[in-house]
Design goal:
The chain has 209 residues and is an alpha/beta fold. It contains 6 helices and 11 strands. The structure holds D-malate.
């Protein structure tokens, strides 16, 4: 079966010209519907591509298996990252899209970071909301020129600040242009996240125009 058919997903075509599509990647227990309202808010008029993670933890969809909270099954993560990259490539052909910007939350942000490191060609950049370093030993990638926004919560009980800082350093060393902000909040998204992401994306839109 084609990868694009294998992922349950939602697709909303662009209603405005010249915007990068957003690849929406939900958190644990979410699905393909969760981040559509956020996508519509932060980049109105952009095409939205929103797959559902293929792993179930109990009844909760995820994008890859974990051994414990914050401890990842890296073999599964690697395989699932390639599956998702193949899905993106096929969906781009099917829907006629340029490379998308990933917008991922929590587990979705973690697989977006893994995509950047393992299959950088499939993304134009990424917004990583509450992301952790996906690999203990990160693969060497060329992310020259790719913009990344990384938003962490200072009160996040799941992600130690040094872990998010390590991810930012890895992405920067690979050549990405990383903006990292630490917000006075926990693991959940806040209104401040929405505002910062919207501003960052409109900056990207202005640069593209
Ligand atoms: C993960 O498993 O990706 C992280 O622990 C975040 C989460 O999904 O809770």
């Amino acid at each position: 079966m084609a990868a694009s058919a294998a992922f349950i997903h939602r697709f909303e075509p662009a209603t405005a010209p010249g915007l990068p599509p957003l690849l929406l990647l939900h958190g644990t227990g979410g699905d393909e519907n969760d981040l559509l309202p956020l996508g519509r808010t932060v980049l109105p008029g952009a095409a939205l591509l929103s797959p559902r993670g293929q792993v179930l933890e109990g009844s909760m969809p995820r994008f890859f298996r974990r051994l414990a909270e914050g401890v990842f099954d890296e073999d599964d993560l690697t395989r699932r990252t390639h599956d998702l990259a193949d899905f993106i490539a096929e969906a781009r052909t099917q829907y006629g899209l340029p490379a998308p910007l990933a917008l991922g939350f929590s587990n979705g942000a973690n697989i977006a970071a893994a995509l950047l490191l393992l299959r950088p060609e499939v993304l134009a950049g990424a917004v990583l909301l509450r992301a952790m370093a996906p690999f203990a030993k990160p693969p060497v990638a060329d992310l020259s020129g790719k913009p990344v926004l990384l938003l962490s919560g200072r009160l996040d009980p799941i992600i130690p600040a040094e872990n998010a800082a390590g991810l930012a350093a890895t992405l920067e060393q690979a050549g990405a242009s990383v903006e990292r902000r630490s917000l006075p909040t926990g693991h959940g998204l806040s209104q401040a996240d929405v505002g910062i992401v919207g501003e960052w994306l409109s900056g990207k839109r202005a640069q593209a125009a």
